[in-house]
Amino acid sequence: MDETGEFRRNWRPLAGAFLGIGSALSLNTYILSTFAPYFIAEFGWTKEQWTWLSVVQMMVIFSIPVSGRLADRFGVWRTAAVGALSYPLFLVAIAFMDGSLMTYFWIYVIQTIVCSTTTSTVYNRVVAQAFVRNRGLAMGLAGSGAPLIGAIGAPLISLYVQNYGFSAGYVLVAAFCMACAVGTLWLLKGVKDEPTKASARADYGAVLSDRAFWIMLAATFLVNVPFSLATTQIKLVSGEQGLPDTAAALMVTAIGLASVAGRFIFGIAIDRLNPPRVAAFGFALPVLGLLLLASPLDSFAVVLFAMVLIGFAFGSEADVVPVLVARHFGIARFGTVVGLLTAAMGAAMAGGSILIALVQRATGSFNGYLFVAAAMTAVGSLLFLMLGGRRFTPVPTAHS
């Protein structure tokens, strides 16, 4: 099987997943980081209030596993259509809200629940099914939609908001996302997607009795604690380093571009090298980045390097974890398992947000959080090495 032929034959599921992941709930990471200062200035919210809003990510603990199971049971197109078409409507609702913190909170909660059907947990199922030899690279390409669009769009939308206001910026993003939703559903219409016929009880029973799942769950939780920094806190933590707003905005772009690079680099690596070792190395990168941010070294170059390391790991997650799932559990339970692991990611990021808020209240600084997150990440990255043991035999690739 030649490599270019695999991409040529399966361009539709790859393009559809790229566009779908990049234009809905996963884009919130970059939208919220970009709009955070404008929310605070527009409505008079405090930084602490804004940080606590990130706890809404806890909703994915419940919604993502459901979405993953729905994708396994009913197929990707039907599952994704619900969130893809509703996501832009939530953005419009935010654009015209009254500025009440509770109003925004409930819009954000419902958006997170409904639009969890547009995440890589759902879309990667068709990618994993279409690609075998280049599965990691294909998932990396698909997952690069959100960081690539976010990296390009963050500085542009910042300039637009400065000239036309907060509401106009949200409406523009909503129009873009609706156009992408239509394109995504057209690309995925008719793509091969074989739903499972097994009962939920049988599938969950098999997954929860597998030791490999519990290792993945613990490791995934631990390495995701620092990624709350890479979602809604990029500009705020950059500002604490003494960087001006323009330089802080560039950090959003830097972490987005690094995420894209991480998807490519680790996607290629995991297709050709030992997957558990690739996972361990990739997820260990933020340890150095976090320690640099906590250090007295606050120059633009040092902060940029730290953000790039975090971005690389944030990007690698898009293909490393799904490839490990496909490797150990196959396609029939792919969405079910990835959904549970993504819930762990959400719990970790929400927990990280709570830790940030508590540390900010106690010390007025990010440093305590940075040290704790670095330690947890180091432990989590080492756990992935256990998956290389002989007892964890991968499913045959040809039947994955």
Write the layout of secondary structure elements.
Elements lengths: L2 H7 L1 H12 L5 H16 L3 H7 L6 H15 L1 H20 L5 H14 L5 H11 L4 H9 L1 H20 L1 H23 L11 H9 L2 H14 L9 H7 L4 H28 L2 H20 L5 H30 L4 H30 L3 H17 L17
Helix pairs in contact: 2-8, 2-9, 2-10, 2-11, 3-10, 5-6, 5-8, 5-18, 6-7, 6-11, 8-9, 8-17, 8-18, 9-15, 9-17, 10-11, 10-15, 13-18, 13-19, 14-15, 15-16, 15-17, 16-17, 16-19, 17-18, 18-19
What does this entry show, briefly?
This protein has 400 residues and is an all-alpha fold. It has helices at residues 3-9, 11-22, 28-43, 47-53, 60-74, 76-95, 101-114, 120-130, 135-143, 145-164, 166-188, 200-208, 211-224, 234-240, 245-272, 275-294, 300-329, 334-363, 367-383.
Description of the molecule:
- The radius of gyration is 20 Å and the shape is globular.
- The chain has 19 helices and no strands.
- With 400 residues, it is mostly helical.
Averaged pLDDT: 83
The strand count comes to 0
What portion of residues belong to β-strands?
under 5%
Low-confidence runs of at least 5 consecutive residues: none
Rg, nearest Å: 20 Å
The shape, in one word, is: globular
**How many helices?**
19
**Major beta-sheet overview:** none
Give the tags.
globular; 400 residues; mainly alpha
